[in-house]
């Protein structure tokens, strides 16, 4: 249908239709008690089909009377802030940003509302159908996120105290950890972008992200993840065999790569979320420390200080986390000085009597595991750490052997036993590198450690160390005639260790094979995508020859402790008041950003 040559079906209206007076007149009426136009204005602003021209028109009017928008007009401002500006034409975005800057400059009472509006857009909408959401993620999210950060930086320029109000809002809006991988990935990516242009918030942002990641980590034990992934592979193979029986003519068809078992997607839902977030965090660490592909030492040192503070506050007190601590492991690989600083930090924690025993024990576990597993540590660094640990053990024995507490007791001597286990564990992994090159000098060095005195002392460390560590250490030290541990091991075996009666009743008892409740923080990394960054830095377990120890390990297995360390539920924090609840849940997929410094989020 055409009138005067104009196609009404395909041509937009020449002028925007609106009802009521302009904003200034509406506010004047509202002040006099007439709310009809005020309510009509709110209704028109909330119209889901509002056009770009309408948005621009309203925003221009709001800017002209921004000084009149007092606390009395709170509801109207909240509706205006919710105008759909993201992804609109450049004119709408520009007008909206101008409105924001005018509003926070003239009416700082609305600063929190403006910040909440921006932060609420750091994650994909939860109200769209899945198919629509995927399209938005692929095409609109990067641009929308850029616009959000543009708005946040603009607010920060006009209100210098923005950072003080922003952090609580970032915490409040953090998605629940059971949300999809994509939602968590988007939000964490955007938090880390904020940390780039508001450096004063970086430590708090890292603390927030890592605290949420630890909740995921402790609810997905390594053994559970491996079982789920292995079962998925077995099911996939079983399905393929059944298909081959039915359709054996299609020999060229390979279905493994199109299935979860043949991709980098984790079948375990919590592990999938954690893997996604680890990829994002490790990418951030790399980008922050490198400029044009070269390591920036000062920026790296600053990030290291922030991560160590978060480590002390959150990671170190968390029992049995499996993967989050690898963020620091990865950072330390950039420069030997960082790794040595981390080891020195752990050493200070271990030997300091002013720290709680449980943290000192945890520090010993981290120290031993790091020395054993970080393949970027040269043997000279390993020896330097042994030269700190072993004399400290001898001094401790000197202080206890003649006293009334010279007997095996974990409560009294917990840090000592964990330090012993750290030394044993380090030597199990590193004895080859100490000996290679010059066997005579290497043996002389190991003999100078006087390990026999530690093993034979009245505190009896072999009684409480993990059996797998004890047996492997005994085999290696016997091979090189350093210590003969088997007499003590046999004597310990004749004395029953603490036992726990069966929970089902009866006389059945089980021996406590892990009285120290120890774990090795840098045991094998099992997350698929993020492991690509960790594997080149990781010292895998290599079976020593002629030790006479049967570790029952398959060719692909990396951990001689497999099956020896009881699976313990991870606990965030060591005080009864800080135990965190455990999580369960479904997930979805995401992929990492490339650069936090210049590039937007890409899915």
Automatic annotation (TrEMBL):
Pfam families: RRN3. Residues 561-603 are annotated as: Disordered. GO terms for biological process: transcription initiation at RNA polymerase I promoter. InterPro entries: RNA_pol_I_trans_ini_fac_RRN3. It comes from the Eukaryota. Belongs to the RRN3 family. This is RRN3 homolog, RNA polymerase I transcription factor.
